[in-house]
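chain below, 244 aa
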Amino acid sequence: MIIGTLGIFLLFACSKSENVTPYQTAPKAETRAKGEAAALAVPVGTVVYTSNGYKLTLTNNDPNFNETVRQKIVDIFFGKYPQLLTRFNPGVTKSITYVIDPNYSGVAYTSGTTVTYSAAWFQSNPQDVDVATHEIMHIIQAYTGGTPGWLTEGIADLVRYRYGVNNAAAGWTLPAYSSSQSYTNAYRVTARFLAWLENHVSSTIVTNLNTALRNHTYTANTWVTLTGKTVDQLWADYGANPAL
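prediction:
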């Protein structure tokens, strides 16, 4: 829940602005007349949300974008982004953009301060709103140049695991350990390794790895500096007793 005043400005094709209840888009009269199902579609256009110094610009290009999904991913920004900023990167921007793209065939991607989501993915997977938790972490990370992709994605999925709001309903879990895995597999495999490290080795290791990555001081020796062991030694320890 967001405490404080939430300013909303609607910038639809008609260029009409109106005040609506926070986190809800008011359906037009003709839409309401078509029944509840139609009213659940978010109008095409751009909505700007502000609260406590944070700003989210949401551009929806999908006439079938679900209102419940919109509500949840907006809530994730205002509920989780400040927490991630405080923990991982206090100097990062407080203004980001969501784009709902009906022509994008992937799931989601982040470029700079803009997260683009696949409209088709949300239509088929309306519970998978914590893709937003993963993607806003990429904005928080703000890594530039030379960062291992497996670690970048592993940290983002670790954040989804720790901060996600709907993972269980979406059927999203961390995979069980397998000897065929590697810490460089990225995403959920790496995330589970990082969760194990937080639980059994150092509660601050992910925070510290993130700092090293942002400051361009990360090397293979960073693991030794933080834990006294190489990443390969840590992975071997994990494989010997992988219970979280």
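Confidence is low (pLDDT under 50) at residues 1-38. The two ends are 30 Å apart (CA to CA).
thats it, cya
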